[in-house]
Design a protein that fits this description.
Layout (H helix, E strand, L loop, with lengths): L7 E5 L2 E6 L2 E6 L9 E6 L14 E4 L5 E5 L4 E5 L5 E5 L12 E6 L5 E5 L4 E5 L5 E6 L6 H6 L3 E5 L5 E5 L3 H14 L13 E6 L6 E7 L21 H9 L10 E4 L5 E4 L5 E5 L5 E6 L5 E2 L2 H17 L4 H12 L4 H17 L5 E2 L2 E6 L4 E6 L11 E5 L4 E5 L9 E2 L4 E7 L5 E7 L6
Antiparallel strand pairs: 1-2, 2-3, 4-29, 5-6, 6-7, 7-8, 9-10, 10-11, 11-12, 13-14, 14-15, 15-16, 17-18, 18-19, 19-20, 21-22, 23-24, 24-25, 25-26, 27-28, 28-29
């Protein structure tokens, strides 16, 4: 990890200037234009019934340029052709084969096969290129929703070499939580070895049950125990324990594992606060490291104070979504009794005021691979909590292409063939639409 002690940074237009005790140098961003022509859009206020998205759908392309969009609220996947017309719908809400019971996410292989992570079924549902259901692949033992949550994996990607997935594990604190829930409902807790959220696995879907193989385990910041390893049944009734589990674990600014899979099956990932991206072979062995001389910012007393104030304001106003926003929304809707909501909010406030900080702010906030194998790398924004900074484009061989300025573009929700990319946009009524655009060859 690149240490930033004794190092100051100054941002100027088009430059990032790094000052250290023995050197002063400037890194110039090569500007990229974000004028991507629109191909089509679906959704919005006057959308046909199949495109009436109430929540932002998850999206993926196949090699024909068909866009697959999982509408979790409707309980199906819509397949859209290159003109923006409906090809077919896949699935529907229900308990049977080909019916979705709490779909989580999904992946699409280039030939149009897809796998849907279904929490309620505790299984992946496999569909053929024609959209017809083929079979279940159990995530693990157990048939209850708690087992489904315990067996979830994060950020699924299709393995280009076959019917397998690449996935990140769950945080260990969530495993402790699901073990306690299993005891509460009388189910047997899952007792399987595997990676947590600092590691990647390959999940073979060729049999009746998933077979997991560890690909890599990333660098792990040293941290004291978060206290969730031994959650008991009584902890499930304690707002402080629940809030600590949902919000705790990582310190503020602790670097996440950012990763993706290249079209040939190699893996790219970043696991520290530095601008350092590792390229591996299919088995997780590092073959190349990509860098730019951009240093992480030290966390000062001023930054700590500003971060706490920002999060407390979010809690008070219900902004930002996630667990904090859900607390306020639940209280306002009456879904949670006022007294209990106040207990949870008080526990959340204590968690914010006492949460620890990592020593520096990571340079990077997001990493995605394009259909053609380039990388889109998002940096931090102007505020410490802002992950929506400039977006660098880099080849997997390390060649730097250029940078989209802050707010010029977001990383697309899906990259497809021939430069197709899909974004989610919202209108003045906050209704989501899918907008498909086409990237110029330079940044594909």
């Amino acid at each position: 990890m690149l240490k930033a002690r004794g190092r100051a940074s100054l941002r100027l237009t088009g430059f990032v200037v790094l000052a250290s005790p023995g050197a002063l140098f400037a890194v110039q961003d090569t500007p990229l234009a974000a004028d991507f022509p629109e191909v089509y859009r679906v959704g919005g206020f006057d959308a046909p019934e199949w495109a009436e998205f109430t929540t932002a759908p998850r999206m993926s392309f196949d090699a024909d340029g068909h866009l697959y969009a999982l509408d979790a609220s409707a309980g199906h996947i819509v397949v859209i052709d290159r003109r923006g017309s409906l090809v077919r719908t896949i699935g529907r809400p229900g308990e049977g084969p080909g019916e979705f019971n709490e779909p989580g996410t999904f992946v699409v292989w280039p030939d149009g096969r897809l796998a849907v992570s279904d929490i309620g079924h505790n299984a992946y549902q496999i569909f053929g290129p024609d959209g017809e259901f083929e079979r279940f692949v159990r995530m693990g033992s157990g048939n209850d929703p708690v087992s489904g949550v315990a067996n979830l994996r994060l950020g699924l990607r299709p393995d280009p070499a076959g019917l397998a997935l690449v996935a990140r594990g769950l945080p260990s604190r969530l495993g402790a939580f699901t073990d306690a829930l299993s005891a509460l409902v009388g189910a047997e807790a899952e007792d399987e070895e595997g990676v947590d959220d600092r590691g990647l696995e390959r999940l073979d879907l060729g049999g009746e049950e998933v077979v997991a193989e560890t690909i890599l385990e990333a660098w792990r910041p040293a941290v004291e125990s978060d206290g969730t390893e031994g959650m008991s049944l009584s902890d499930l009734a304690d707002p402080s324990s629940i809030v600590s589990m949902m919000m705790g674990g990582d310190r503020w600014f602790e670097p996440e594992l950012l990763w993706d899979v290249l079209p040939d099956g190699r893996i790219v990932y970043s696991d520290s606060s530095a601008y350092r991206i590792r390229v591996t072979d299919r088995n997780g062995q590092v073959t190349r490291t990509l860098t730019r001389p951009l240093a992480p910012e030290p966390v000062t007393r001023r930054i700590r104070s500003a971060m706490r104030e920002h999060e407390l304001n979010n809690l008070q106003e219900g902004r930002g979504g996630g667990f904090l926003g859900g607390l306020v929304a639940a209280a306002e809707s009456g879904a949670v009794p006022p007294g209990l909501a106040e207990q949870y909010q008080g526990a959340a406030r204590d968690e914010i005021e006492n949460r620890e900080f990592f020593e520096e702010i990571p340079v990077l906030s997001a990493l995605r691979a394009t259909w053609d194998g380039s990388l889109w790398i998002q940096r931090r924004g102007e505020e410490p909590w802002d992950g929506s900074g400039p977006v660098d484009v880099m080849r997997a061989d390390g060649a730097y292409v250029g940078t989209f300025a802050i707010r010029a573009t977001r990383i697309p929700g899906a990259f497809g063939p021939d430069g197709l990319v899909a974004f989610i946009e919202r209108d003045e009524l906050d209704i989501p639409s899918i907008v498909v655009r086409r990237l110029p060859p330079k940044v594909r």
